[in-house]
């Protein structure tokens, strides 16, 4: 980041972070600072571990719950118990993510990131060895309790970038998530029940007793590899009091583009309750709520029979669609996100992404009506492709909202707490969002509200209301005079 102001004035608790990196004189256009490639690469590896470990269970979780015989033979209850396992992570994360983010402001980012990565590994091993429903629940609670990485990674990304390359740095995060969201289910679906697929290699009683241990162990092994890489090569970006007193400094990349702020006291939670932080976090929460509702309804719509308001696709077709979206989304974010933000500005891109939820939800009933009247014709797939393309535009909103949340921090020592508040809000809405959206989907069909399409009307109305939250945002991440 750029050095502090020459007049020695300390930023107050309402001063946005990016104001510290702007010179007092007006410069027409700043040169783009090169990214510290090695450190950001390690940071993205740490992020990659999360979608791989969290989503590798999705292909087999329903079958695992069914085999545990906790439903009493009622297959209709499998979704309820499986959904609880999937949601419990967000619930426990909401309880602990803010604390971990605050801890990282005091002891540094690296210890917290290593603890979270170790928690991912331990949780996956426990999950693979679980033989009862409640041990599955405990293992998911464990990862939510130990893993505060999601907020800390964003804080560290903010410390490794400045106002000239922040969009470039944050554009890589959705790409990595898309890769993990593709690789994770592939590991889970391919390596589950290896004694059936490769009996010559996995014929022992262990693999019969624990048929889902191999995908869990594989993701845990990958996480362990990332843990070792981070231990050796990841550099701390937070000055602790001991480092300041001993004169210790953080090693820099050859580009020497990362300059750390002098030691300052982290802000209290009360001091973070200011307009820049609250407005940025509110937009993050609105985005997370609409997005998780969309992600919950999308596979449900694809699998529901046409006569009941869906598209009636089999799991293979659904996997192909979601995989194609992951590839398309990751490629677009990597190639065009920073260019689009540089051209149009983060606020315009964010508002466009929030507005895109309206056509995304509106396309669902269009697809079903076309399927009822014309069958699964090429026109259907064109409309599905259109919805996925709009979803790619929507996903750019995440990079923009991360920029606003990070830049709203009063100072670098408060980055962890600021991102922790944002992640806390996102975790809460992601805990209640899926069940609310899918229940609304079911009730709309059961009671035939608006021909079974009432769920989409309600979500469109919600999207329009939440879009208004983005209007007060500044055109660019927070400046000094805009944060007062």
Automatic annotation (TrEMBL):
Region (Disordered): 1-28
UniProt-annotated location(s): Membrane
A GO cellular component entry from the record: membrane
Transmembrane spans: 81-100, 112-130, 136-157, 169-192, 212-234, 277-297, 317-337, 349-372, 378-404, 424-443, 449-469
Keyword terms, alphabetized: Membrane, Transmembrane, Transmembrane helix, Transport
Name listed for the protein in its UniProt record: Efflux pump azaL
PANTHER family tied to this protein: MAJOR FACILITATOR SUPERFAMILY (MFS) PROFILE DOMAIN-CONTAINING PROTEIN, MAJOR FACILITATOR SUPERFAMILY DOMAIN-CONTAINING PROTEIN 10
Domain Major facilitator superfamily (MFS) profile as annotated: residue spans: 39-475
Chief location: membrane
InterPro entries recorded: MFS, MFS_dom, MFS_trans_sf, Tet-R_TetA/multi-R_MdtG-like
SUPFAM superfamilies: MFS general substrate transporter (SSF103473)
Keyword Transmembrane: yes
Topological relation to the membrane, as annotated: Multi-pass membrane protein
Gene3D superfamilies: MFS general substrate transporter like domains (1.20.1250.20)
Superkingdom in the source lineage: Eukaryota
MF terms (GO), sorted A to Z: transmembrane transporter activity
Upper classification of the organism: Eukaryota, Fungi, Dikarya, Basidiomycota, Agaricomycotina
């Amino acid at each position: 980041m750029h050095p502090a102001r020459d007049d020695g004035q300390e930023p107050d608790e309402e001063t946005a972070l990016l104001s510290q990196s702007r010179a007092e004189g007006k410069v027409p256009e700043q040169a783009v600072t090169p990214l510290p490639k090695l450190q950001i690469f390690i940071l993205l590896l740490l992020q990659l571990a999360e979608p791989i470990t969290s989503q590798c269970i999705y292909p087999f979780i329903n079958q695992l719950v069914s085999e545990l015989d906790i439903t009493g033979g009622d297959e209709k209850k499998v979704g309820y118990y499986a959904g609880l396992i999937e949601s419990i992570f967000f619930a426990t994360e909401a309880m602990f993510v803010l604390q971990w983010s605050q801890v990282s402001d005091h002891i540094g980012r690296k210890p917290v990131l290593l603890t979270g990565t170790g928690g991912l590994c331990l949780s996956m091993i426990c999950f693979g060895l679980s033989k009862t429903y409640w041990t599955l629940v405990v293992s998911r609670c464990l990862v939510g309790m130990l893993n505060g990485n999601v907020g800390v990674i964003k804080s560290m990304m903010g410390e490794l970038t400045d106002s000239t390359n922040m969009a470039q740095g944050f554009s890589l995060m959705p790409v990595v998530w898309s890769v993990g969201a593709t690789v994770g289910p592939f590991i889970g679906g391919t390596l589950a029940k290896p004694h059936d697929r490769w009996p010559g290699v996995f014929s022992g009683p262990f693999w019969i007793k624990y048929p889902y241990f191999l995908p869990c162990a594989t993701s845990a092994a990958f996480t362990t590899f990332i843990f070792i890489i981070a231990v050796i090569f990841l550099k701390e970006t937070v000055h602790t009091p001991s480092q300041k007193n001993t004169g210790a400094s953080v090693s820099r990349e050859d580009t020497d583009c990362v300059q750390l702020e002098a030691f300052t006291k982290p802000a209290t939670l009360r001091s973070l309750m200011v307009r820049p932080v609250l407005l940025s976090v509110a937009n993050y929460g609105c985005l997370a709520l609409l997005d998780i509702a969309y992600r919950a309804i999308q596979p449900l719509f694809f699998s529901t029979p046409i006569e009941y308001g869906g598209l009636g696709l089999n799991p293979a077709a659904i996997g192909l669609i979601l995989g194609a979206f992951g590839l398309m989304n990751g490629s677009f974010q990597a190639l065009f996100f920073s260019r689009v933000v540089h051209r149009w500005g983060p606020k315009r891109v964010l508002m466009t992404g929030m507005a895109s939820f309206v056509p995304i939800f509106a396309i669902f009933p269009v697809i079903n009506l076309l399927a009822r009247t014309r069958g699964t014709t090429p026109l259907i797939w064109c409309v599905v492709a259109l919805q996925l393309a709009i979803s790619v535009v929507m996903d750019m909103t995440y990079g923009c909202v991360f920029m606003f949340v990070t830049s709203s921090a009063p100072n670098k020592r408060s980055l962890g707490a600021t991102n922790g508040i944002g992640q806390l809000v996102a975790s809460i809405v992601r805990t209640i969002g899926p069940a609310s959206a899918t229940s609304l989907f079911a009730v709309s069909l059961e009671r035939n509200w608006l021909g079974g399409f009432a769920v989409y009307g309600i979500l469109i109305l919600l999207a329009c209301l939440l879009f208004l939250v983005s209007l007060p945002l500044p055109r660019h991440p927070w400046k000094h005079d805009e944060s007062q």
